[in-house]
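Design request, tokens follow.
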């Protein structure tokens, strides 16, 4: 075992912090200009759960839900409360739930009345809360690059930070054993602290037994460690000052979490499934069996069942009987990943990807009510015509549903397609976008027997979205831009034109002779198609972030652009589109549907927002425009270090975050108050957990004083 030779640790007591630090006021997360939120369906992925017998406190997107599982494994929703952002970590002690919400911090919820949970306080943190342990009125939180934070939570309405421990790496897990805390730091190894006095934690040891450590579980003199792609590790911690590796158990996939229940160890992660080991002899784990979940996070141990969060695939109830293998006993379906929707007569049909089709009554936006659910593993787009719903279901192809009874949708037809991504229907013909093979013309006059009658095939290119008007189709073709087809004869689609849009075209809409293209990181393109054989780009707008989906309505263009949310553009003059409002979401905005003054915004993690677009609610015309932040990076491209420079025109908090092109935040190099003036920050090309990021294009986002700036950067290793 090699000791860590270089690490920086800072232990701050209450005195060093200038006394205990109270939490900030509870604030709503959504910044809105010219929009007012009317309703929110917050359902999304399930990252965390905590069990109290057969009652489970779990995350469903931004909702904290309390669910009861009966003896038959059938879940019943008891109560819920909507939090500022996605639920990522949960600990329950007594009548209180301590909840880590992405990008916001710790929320404490009173669950003494399970049917009516009440939010008590929010304590903000500059990084994600990965894990929470609560003991003796102290909460110990693993807060990524912000380190271990210790809070006095004796007053749940006013939690006080009393100590912190930080290093140059990101802490991913904390596990307690008596007066000892074990911290996993990813590539920064294992740190052991004496927490006999929680206000003055002291370092016992910092070691590097394996290249990467995530999840931890203490069992007497041994510590079980999740080792990412290296499997499961066992440490001898009989001397916490000198932990010694005992053995490594190879497991395929990414092993992220371990949970100990008596002599059984539950090992979970990504592409490694749910695994059970008998560790009665800690130095000789015996594999008991597993379940093939694509992703599975920290297991919650109940009375006679286990509850496994499986991210977009909901919460699974698992039972182990005697010496047998684990068996799935029940399932609580949540919101999945909301991608696109169709709206018919006050009913919203949401393609929730891994969780199928969700059907919602949205007639009263303030009281959104789920009517029905149809499960498939890959719902990406949906179009509804009468009593039929046509679902583009990625690897599951085209699925045709009878939705005459929204509470009980029934599949009546199916057509194989390698990766169905979008649908347009004209009469008895359905035009299906398949990102692998191109466009398929499908006769659906008999919906029980859909039949391909024509195609426009483009092997090796990526078709992501499709829109139609009259006899023409407009196709968003990724790096190949906009394609236009004439389909007056669906059996023989005719290619007319291609327009290179410079970016990654992933969304398209048409109104009259105007086509709008969502072009990823390069924003929006407005194209005149009066002559479909000769499209002309009229204007463009850099929306910041990644423009993913859009909808034209009259003189406005509504754009779903992640990681920002919704942006509306005034397109009265399509040669000069102008910003006209925005609404931030907590997740990854994917698509938008506009109906008169109501806007339906679909967010992959944040569910469905229903908004009122009212330009009268915006900033006064006489208000001074916000001054730019002038974010820049030198060098760019870089390997592996770059220097960010920017200008703050007033003192305040400045947050610099790094995102992948698909909107996933991987690093937050800075989040603190700075004075006005020019500033420079150096970034080493590492993720929040300390791992070097791979080569590729990333988006740097700077936020300060309500102003945002975005910069495309390229890491070349």
């Amino acid at each position: 075992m090699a000791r860590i030779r270089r690490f920086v640790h800072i232990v701050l007591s209450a005195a060093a912090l200038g006394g205990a630090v109270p939490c900030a006021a509870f604030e709503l997360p959504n910044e809105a200009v010219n929009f007012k939120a009317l309703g929110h369906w917050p359902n999304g992925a399930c990252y965390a759960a905590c069990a109290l017998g057969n009652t489970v406190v779990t995350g469903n997107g931004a909702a904290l839900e309390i669910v009861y599982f009966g003896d038959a494994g059938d879940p019943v929703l008891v109560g819920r409360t909507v939090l500022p952002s996605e639920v990522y970590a949960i600990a329950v002690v007594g009548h209180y739930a301590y909840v880590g919400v992405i990008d916001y911090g710790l929320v404490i919820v009173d669950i003494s009345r399970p049917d009516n949970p009440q939010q008590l306080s929010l304590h903000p943190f500059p990084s994600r809360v990965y894990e929470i342990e609560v003991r003796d009125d102290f909460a110990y939180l693993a807060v990524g690059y912000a380190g271990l934070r210790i809070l006095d939570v004796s007053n749940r309405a006013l939690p006080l930070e009393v100590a912190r421990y930080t290093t140059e790496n990101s802490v991913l897990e904390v596990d307690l054993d008596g007066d000892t805390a074990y911290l996993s730091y990813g590539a920064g190894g294992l740190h052991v602290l004496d927490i006999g006095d929680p206000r003055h934690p002291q370092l016992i040891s910092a070691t590097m037994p394996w290249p990467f450590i995530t999840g931890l579980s203490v069992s007497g003199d041994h510590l079980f460690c999740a080792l990412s792609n290296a499997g499961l590790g066992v440490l001898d911690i009989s001397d916490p000052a000198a932990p010694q590796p005992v053995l490594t158990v190879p497991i395929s996939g990414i092993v992220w979490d371990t949970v100990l229940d008596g002599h059984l160890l539950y090992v979970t992660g990504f592409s490694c499934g749910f695994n059970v080991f008998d560790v009665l002899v800690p130095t000789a784990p015996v594999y008991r069996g597993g379940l093939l979940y694509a992703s599975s996070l920290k297991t919650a141990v109940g009375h006679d069942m286990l509850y496994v969060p499986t991210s977009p695939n909901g919460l699974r109830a698992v039972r182990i009987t005697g010496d047998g293998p684990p068996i799935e006993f029940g399932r609580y379906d949540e919101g999945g990943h909301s991608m696109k929707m169709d709206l018919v007569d006050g009913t919203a049909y949401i393609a929730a990807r891994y969780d199928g089709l969700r059907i919602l009554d949205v007639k009263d936006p303030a009281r959104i009510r789920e009517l029905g659910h149809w499960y498939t593993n890959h719902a990406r787009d949906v179009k509804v015509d009468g009593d039929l719903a046509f679902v583009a279901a990625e690897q599951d192809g085209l699925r045709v549903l009878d939705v005459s009874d929204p509470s009980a949708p029934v599949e009546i037809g199916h057509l194989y397609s390698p990766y169905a991504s979008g649908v347009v229907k004209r009469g008895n013909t359905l035009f299906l976008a398949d990102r692998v093979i191109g466009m398929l013309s499908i006769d659906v006059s008999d919906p029980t027997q859909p039949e391909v009658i024509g195609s426009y095939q483009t092997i090796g290119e990526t078709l992501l979205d499709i829109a139609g008007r009259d006899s023409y189709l407009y196709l968003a073709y990724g790096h190949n831009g906009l394609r236009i087809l004439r389909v007056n004869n669906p059996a023989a689609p005719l290619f007319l034109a291609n327009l290179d849009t410079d970016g990654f075209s992933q969304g398209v809409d048409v109104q009259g002779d105007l086509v709008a293209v969502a072009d990823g990181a390069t924003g929006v393109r407005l194209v005149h198609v009066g002559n479909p054989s000769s499209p002309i780009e009229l204007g463009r707008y850099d929306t910041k972030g990644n423009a993913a989906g859009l909808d034209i309505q009259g003189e406005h263009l509504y754009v779903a652009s992640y990681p920002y949310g919704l942006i509306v553009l005034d397109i009265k003059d399509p040669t000069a589109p102008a910003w006209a409002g925005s609404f931030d979401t907590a997740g990854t905005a994917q698509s938008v549907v506009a109906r008169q003054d109501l806007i339906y915004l679909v967010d992959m993690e944040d569910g469905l927002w229903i908004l009122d677009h009212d330009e009268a609610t915006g900033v006064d015309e006489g208000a001074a425009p916000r001054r730019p932040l002038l974010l820049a990076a030198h060098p760019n491209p870089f390997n592996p270090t770059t220097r960010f420079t920017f200008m703050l025109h007033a003192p305040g908090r400045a947050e610099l975050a790094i995102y992948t092109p698909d909107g996933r935040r991987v690093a937050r190099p800075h989040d603190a108050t700075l004075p006005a003036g020019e500033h420079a920050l150096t970034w080493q090309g590492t993720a929040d957990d300390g791992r070097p990021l791979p080569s590729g294009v990333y988006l740097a986002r700077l936020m300060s004083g309500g102003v945002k700036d975005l910069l495309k950067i390229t890491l070349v290793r």
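Comment from the thread starter after seeing the answer: thanks! The chain has a mean pLDDT of 89.
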